[in-house]
């Protein structure tokens, strides 16, 4: 499974060197991945904590921290080649978990798919023409969880479903 986030976090990945490490989104993401067997070890919010992903990899829609965490169209376009390279490096990929609408749209753009055929919706599971499942979740950010847009249970439901699809 490939998990696609928005961008490196200023206080997370940019500081620690590991995606989602050291920020609130990582606390929820890694706790959930551990719960469903997609990671092992202990998450200590630093890159040397011993946590290891299993049957999962993390990438971002853009490679740099965008101003106000909102990448511009030009940044998304410039970074597509990096996400395309991630996808190409995973020939046995079964599923992609898009964390947020921008990550979802970036995956579709990289794959050359029409947005209208695969609308973003939390909990949606889209089977793509190549057989890969694109699962959608609201981003596991502090903003989304503090406002109730995303609850831990909502996030766990999506991860549980996609974990089942990549099991074995």
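Q: What amino acid sequence fits the structure above?
A:
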């Amino acid at each position: 499974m490939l998990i696609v986030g928005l961008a490196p976090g200023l206080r997370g990945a940019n500081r620690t060197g590991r995606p989602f490490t050291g920020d609130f989104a990582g606390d929820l993401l890694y706790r959930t991945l551990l719960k469903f067997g997609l990671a092992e070890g202990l998450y200590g919010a630093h890159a040397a904590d011993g946590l290891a992903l299993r049957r999962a990899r993390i990438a971002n829609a853009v490679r740099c921290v965008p101003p106000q965490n909102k990448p511009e169209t030009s940044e998304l376009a410039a970074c597509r080649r990096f996400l395309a390279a991630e996808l190409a490096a995973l020939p046995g990929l079964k599923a992609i978990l898009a964390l947020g609408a921008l990550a979802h749209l970036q995956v579709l753009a990289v794959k050359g798919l029409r947005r209208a055929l695969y609308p973003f919706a939390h909990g949606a599971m889209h089977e793509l023409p190549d057989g890969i499942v694109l699962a959608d979740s609201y981003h596991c950010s502090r903003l989304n969880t503090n406002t109730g847009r995303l609850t831990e249970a909502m996030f766990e439901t999506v991860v549980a479903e996609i974990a089942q699809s990549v099991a074995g």
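Q: And what stands out in the fold?
A: The beta strands are 2-5, 39-40, 52-53, 57-60, 95-99, 125-127, 133-137.
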